[in-house]
Specification:
It contains seven helices and eight strands, in the order βαβααβαβαββαββα. By secondary structure, the chain is of the alpha/beta class. The strands form two sheets. Strands 1, 2, 3, 4, 5 and 6 form a six-stranded parallel sheet that branches. A hairpin with a 2-residue loop joins strand 7 and strand 8. The longest helix is centred in the last third of the chain and has 21 residues. Bound molecules: flavin mononucleotide (FMN). Flavin mononucleotide (FMN) binds next to helix 1.
Amino acid sequence: MRRDVNLRVAGIAGSLRVDSYNRALLAACVELAPTALTIEPFDLREVPLYDRDLEDEGFPEAVTALRSAIATADGLLIVTPETNAGLPAVTKNAVDWASRRPVPTPLDGKPALVMGATPGRLGTALAQAQLRGSLAHAGAIVLPRPQVFISAAGEKLVDGVLVDDETRERVAAALAAFAAFVVRLGPEGSP
Ligand SMILES: Cc1cc2nc3c(=O)[nH]c(=O)nc-3n(C[C@H](O)[C@H](O)[C@H](O)COP(=O)(O)O)c2cc1C
């Protein structure tokens, strides 16, 4: 990749709890991103539940901030937990707000990368499958692979730090692949 490439990526974690494994994973992504890519975390805590009445009154301030963070970025990183074999409400809520008109919506044509961490065995595979479907429906272009499923999160993310070397390598590889993907899809990657 060219040295002068400087990509900005909006990063969101689909968990609100302070000691969240996924918030810690997002922090690790900030650290492990290649130099060509800067991840700017966006905190979903202030984003209300989607409500068409709220939307009709004008997007709430936190929603406008979320939409702007995604719209102005070169790409979107979503790091999600899994609940009840699916996508948690916090993550889906962010996607739903970002998918709303006017067109182009913040998600239209947006390159996206998904990851997830859980103490469970499947590494958020079920949640990520749903998230990929929702993002594709909303017009985002999701990096097909490598996929990052982090199981046994308590052993790998300790005191907010990604300590497992093999997982660090997998996360770094996905971020590098995503940087190349964003360049390929964006104006810089056009022939
Ligand atoms: C209501 C609920 C349902 C859950 N269901 C699943 C599940 O289906 N699969 C899974 O891997 N973990 C499940 N978990 C465990 C979460 O992965 C775990 O709480 C995780 O730490 C949440 O992510 P966070 O640490 O980023 O907050 C569930 C947790 C809750 C509260």
